[in-house]
Queue: 2 jobs
Job 1
Amino acid sequence: MGDDFPRTGGRFRRLIDLRTERDGAVVGWLEDDFHHFGVTLEHDGECVTDIRAASPRVPFSTCPLAGEHLKGMIGKPLSARSTDVGAMIEMRDQCTHMFDLAGLAMAQASVRRRHRRYEAIVEDREIVAWEAGMRRLLGPGTARLFRDGEEVLMWEVDRRDITGPKGWAGQSMIKGFRTHTEAMEVDEAEAATVLRRAVMVASGRTLDPDTVRTAAERGQSGVCFTFQEKRRAEAHNMRGAARNYEDDSAGMLSHIGERP
């Protein structure tokens, strides 16, 4: 397992673990090559009563500060559809990954599920074109999602489109994706949302994250808390934070059993 970039011939791996504690609180942990976050969501059976976050490993120094913005969920009703978190709090003011994890924890609390575990595996893809802001277009590859150990979704992808299998072929992962998944059954939509995010984050394996000093130097638009214009120049790169879990998941989610 090497640490050189671009990483080729391997795969990106993302794990998400969601557990409901005895008191009803849901604890979620997420880890991949570039991120390690946790959330604890407390509720009264109907509404969120508290939410806390932890950031054991982050790409930029400002990322942990975004956890406080999840507090906007407090007092909002639980929903079984994880993406409904977007109606509760403004996504661009959040850390994307804590935001996603909070939505998954909320959905778990809503349906009273005891445990759920996702593993997304995205094969490395080559850069085939560049766009403004260091955005890369990647060639063909395969992405798979396992839920509680069982494969529930497989996509063939090329650039920003899903090219297979039948039923998904021709669907953009950008334009119209949310409209498409909102019409799906809740669990099916949740799986698709989790895999889409993994495909997008997997592109990070094509560039060495330590070549920039701040988020501003990345040239990315303000899609999240750290990359907002007002703070990206102050968001310092956490050099050496990246890992490589292409071979297996050993060592991932080491904080399971702890509450943020």
Job 2
Amino acid sequence: MLPLQTRREISPRLRHLKRLSAATLSALLGATLLGACADDGGSGSAAGDSGGEGKTTVSVGVFGVFGYKQAGLYDEYERNHPDIRIKENATERNEDYYPALLNHLAAGSGLNDIQAVEVDNVNEMATLQADRLTDLKSAPGVRESDFLDWKWDQAKTKDGKVIGLGTDIGPMGVCYRKDHFKKAGLPTDRDKVGKLWAGDWEKYVETGERFMDKAPKGVSFMDGASGLYNASVSGYERKNYAPGGKLIYKKSQAVEESWDLAMRAVKGKTTARLKQFDTQWDQAYSNGAFATVVCPPWMLGYIKEKSGTKGADKWDVAPAPKPANWGGSFLSVPAKAKNRDEAVKLAAWLTAPEQQEKLFKKQASFPSSTKALESTGVRGARHAYFDNAPIGRIFSDAALEVPKAVLGPKDQIIKQYITDIGILQVEQQGKSPGQGWDAAVKKIDDAVED
């Protein structure tokens, strides 16, 4: 789940996946969304313990901040189910959480009753761990029609089981600095800005080249080529794998075209040559060193925090060239969960449209529920820091058009090595595109079996 946080690991989506601490999250939330406020919540005893007084404790394992406690949803569920207590067990980083989860599943012990799964790991879970997870497709209260079809399918096994219920999603937009655009002679109105690159990421790169002709001193068009690659490749149905599981990234149209766009951006000197979620990237927000960044809804709070008061009234949000998704998670229930029946009920309730809407209002976690996306509370949402941008409409429209991507068990590793090894060697070390690509392929081949 990615509210205004970044629950990230070592790679782009990892870092993009390292959720912020609860304290930082609370600081980001203040007045971020019109009408938003955060509640304290959550109680219960240690995982696996009895809740006391004959109560059952349902344990929930997450990485980073999922927001259920902060939004008061655990407390609400406990009030409505007085025989249940909920205990959340949070690990800060998914890179620590996920390997431990795999070990616990293999051992059949040490498991929470509910286990969160990040989107870049869900295919591996559905492919290799399905027998160790509960099929939630027909769980009480669960309706396939309540979820975006592409989100529902991400957690589906080949034989039709659904091993995870969708939490949040990350439909992409483009956040931009109006002051930098004005100085470069480009429009600043969000609708006109969106038209600059509508329909094609190549137009986004072309806009960057126009921007650099009259760019303010010391300002680049975009933060880094890796963000562009991630945005572009995520808009295709097939990128690293073909249906059936065959590894195709070396001959993939999505990978090839997205790599070429990233290389064009580097060659045209339109990037600030930054690695996302590194210290230098954070500082560049404060210094106003770049004019655009690809931004899912969960990144808005991050931008607000890092840009601070100096960036107030300067940022806005426009639709991305093509619909694509970056981020999101699922709630799964291990087959050997101690309190499996109660866990299934809780997981279904937490991911129901009503709770997804509440979570968005209080934590800005963007819903994967079609019903929640259509609600006034979500679709009508605006973000004060981004010039009152209609983020509910922008991101809901994108979410409804995200393609059904073919996922594979090693998507995370492939993307990490292409961006963190291949692209960064070209962008930061001056290697040729061929050298960067070969370095990435070598790392991928060492880690992934075709």
